[in-house]
Amino acid sequence: xxxxxxxxxxxxxxxxxxxxxxxxxxxxxxxxxxxxxxxxxxxxxxxxxxxxxxxxxxxxxxxxxxxxxxxxxxxxxxxxxxxxxxxxxxxxxxxxxxxxxxxxxxxxxxxxxxxxxxxxxxxxxxxxxxxxxxxxxxxxxxxxxxxxxxxxxxxxxxxxxxxxxxxxxxxxxxxxxxxxxxxxxxxxxxxxxxxxxxxxxxxxxxxxxxxxxxxxxxxxxxxxxxxxxxxxxxxxxxxxxxxxxxxxxxxxxxxxxxxxxxxxxxxxxxxxxxxxxxxxxxxxxxxxxxxxxxxxxxxxxxxxxxxxxxxxxxxxxxxxxxxxxxxxxxxxxxxxxxxxxxxxxxxxxxxxxxxxxxxxxxxxxxxxxxxxxxxxxxxxxxxxxxxxxxxxxxxxxxxxxxxxxxxxxxxxxxxxxxxxxxxxxxxxxxxxxxxxxxxxxxxxxxxxxxxxxxxxxxxxxxxxxxxxxxxxxxxxxxxxxxxxxxxxxxxxxxxxxxxxxxxxxxxxxxxxxxxxxxxxxxxxxxxxxxxxxx
Length: 534
Hints:
Helix content is 80%, strand content 0%. By secondary structure, the protein is mainly alpha-helical.
């Protein structure tokens, strides 16, 4: 490796910038839901769809992007992703309706993020070695944690005092900086030929994930169609696995070598990160909807109230590597899930007619710091012990599971929130207007919820009564959300028992033993050098 390149941290800074805006993109718009509905004249369901599809697009293309970096080259695929991402940022910033926002953000930025994300890890691994690589990976992870932490605050600030469009303009500025200094990123030779690209496997993987998320999104409208989509998704997954195994047996190179799943830590890591991201992104979306829909908070106030959760994630990201030197990954991730479960249980009882920052802060902080530990250590425990050839595929699988978890989280918990609110409208209306035309009132309240109170038309149901009803039904729906989250996190806690710590602990013991044995020698060498100088 070129020594000068190894000594420069600029490539790390550039790819960390990319990681920063990709993570920021997944969090900063949650606090802007109410303003988006107003500016683009759309509804909560449409914004829910757009947010879910951003991470879905990224997740569905992640495996393909991981393979393309071996065929085209890590730097080339990274820069291509940056270009597409930048074009998407321009369209999103100029959006005049929900369709433009969907194309710019959900599709183009999603594609760009998918191309860049696997290349970020690969570029770091290929540029740095040994302790520098460990530091670089930890730094990139911390930057992602910072982006997740400040995302709601950033989105709240720009939306309240400027416009949510400035968030996409900021991302475009970062892309321009990446292009300006891109010559400092090392060029990597392709490791495979173009004939090795598994097109059919790629198509199977895309359809499997897209149908899965569409099935989730349909739950709130058409349960039968949702079940059909789930069944087709399972069939597509089975066909994908069979095709990949046959391709491997024939001597060709599959998109995913199914043999990699013999690594129990990889399987456990994927499942655990998937669950953690469902809980994290789903809860951030649900809490944002409650604060804006029930309490009428603006974007900035919403961002402020989410700081305990995102701050907890950041603290965990910064402390995880240091704590892992003392305690095993298995113990730390188990503790993380326990803290997150306690946080979800506390939050279950906090949503009501009158909610303050101090009411939800403890629960959000425990949820954030717990899930932060799980997410920060998930990659490390999964790829340690793998050969370099398998690390690229493993990285793609891990990022796919994490990003798919973000999409499923927003979709599933968003659906639970909307279903719970819709089901509770009739009961809430009955409290305030027991003798009136129930259907008419329910329609009016449903429209109010879909617009998060941004209605100008008059209706038989007064604005004040609709606001009270919205508060009641959203508070009840939040209890359902937290119940689901706690059960999901309990499953994650059980999965931590599948983690094998032996390799990690063995390396830690060998390092400590080496440091202990080399300690006297280092001191003698220093004493000898001191005498020689005299």
